[in-house]
Amino acid sequence: VRLRFADRIALGRNVYLDHGVYLHACPDGIRIGANTFIMHGAVLHVYNFRNLPHAFIRIGRDSLIGELNVLRGQGGITIGDRVYTAPLVQLLAVNHVYQDPTRPMVEQGITAQGIVVEDDVWIGAGAVITDGVHIGRGAVVAAGAVVTQDVPPHTVVAGVPARVVKTIDAGQAGPAAEGFY
Q1: Annotated catalytic, 96?
Q2: What is the pLDDT at residue 128?
Q3: Of 42-51, 71-80, 143-152, where does mean pLDDT reach its minimum?
Q4: Whole-number Cα distances in Å, 139 to 67, 125, 134
Q5: What's the confidence (pLDDT) of residue 96?
Q6: Annotated catalytic residue within 19, 40, 54, 96
């Protein structure tokens, strides 16, 4: 495990950090709730060289951040309780401005609106969540989805860009849906 700015990292009771995890916490830090697992090779990165006002990562309790996930928290990332992410998920709370073709992209700045993932969400392997997205409670993001818009609670989204493909009803208990891990 590698920690940068360790004094800005708060870990709840029984947090598990697996081999190869990298936590880079500045300025408002990283907080990880009790009984949460951060799996092999995950990168939680809050790099704020542009003095953004909401740079942080907050993860609730009883959650799991999967292998090789990348969380870029320049705009702030808030993840609720009992959220599971499969391997290779990316949550990217930062984006480049590129609208002026007469200026180099690196001179045009960035946006950093933040990402919110409510409680009881499952995010499938390889999914990408872009800046400014809010994922509602109990939602499922299918493997490989690219989420560019808000996800309503208790829905399944899939595709590029992600679209609602199913509403989750209480009467639909049963085995996991095929193709969503």
Answers
A1: yes
A2: 98
A3: 42-51
A4: 21, 15, 11
A5: 87
A6: 96
